[in-house]
Amino acid sequence: MEKKEAERRELAETPVKSDIIFDGRIIRVEKDVALLPNGKETVREIVRHPGAVAVVAARAEEFIFVRQYRYALAEITLEIPAGKLEPGEEPALCARRELREETGYDAELDFWGMYYSSPGFSDEKIYVYGARDLTWAPLVADDDEFLRVVRLSRAETFARLRQGEFRDAKTVLGLLLSQAHAL
Questions:
Q1: Distance between CA 131 and CA 137 in Å, rounded?
Q2: Residue 13 and residue 29: Cα distance in Å, rounded?
Q3: Which of 56, 78, 75 is nearest to 66 (CA)?
Q4: Which of 17, 21, 101, 130 lies in the 20 to 30 Å Cα band around 40?
């Protein structure tokens, strides 16, 4: 414990001042002044995010993905089902809701871990789940969400992964974790 505390003293930055630059529907952007361990001040820009879930869904010999247009990229992506946490929502409940809304399936969920999407500037946490024993139980999709369900065989999924065709980080991470968890 002493080693961790000593390391924290050597590396940690101390907030001095924080201003909210933008407060939107999904994110808040803050501009902070922080005191560095060497006594100098610096500016840190932080994106505050409520967190999200991602679900690797497998059925028989296939994985289930969603294809959707991502406005920030101006392109269509192929991703594992995912979505934003609502205030106070438990990640497992969010994962089940998102899976049902996006693919029509409910499932037994296994928690695989929590990961930071981009810790250099954001506090977003993504909770990753594996979904097994899928059953048909659709929910109505959000009215601002337009997507298509895509099923790929395991062989095709991992061939595409090796070829770099998945460029969404949570999808790449989820597929790699699926191998570690033998989903």
A1: 14
A2: 19
A3: 78
A4: 21
Specify the CATH superfamily of domain 52-180: Nucleoside Triphosphate Pyrophosphohydrolase (3.90.79.10)
Enumerate the domain spans of the chain.
Answer: 2-48, 52-180
Give the whole-angstrom CA distance, residue 62 versus residue 84.
25
* Strand ranges, E, within 99-177: 105-116, 125-136, 147-153
Of the chain, the percentage scoring pLDDT greater than 70 comes to 100
Where residue 83 falls among pLDDT bands split at 50, 70, 90?
very high
What's the pTM value of the predicted model, to 2 decimals?
A: 0.94
Token pair of 165 as six digits: 């065709």
Task: Name residues whose C-beta falls within 8 Å of residue 74's C-beta, 6 or more positions apart in sequence.
Answer: none
H-type alpha helices, 13-126: 91-103
Please state, as a whole number, how many other Cβ atoms lie within 10 Å of the Cβ of residue 117.
17
The pLDDT value recorded for residue 157 is 98
Terminal alpha carbon distance of the chain: 36
Which residue is associated with the tokens 């001095």? Answer: 16
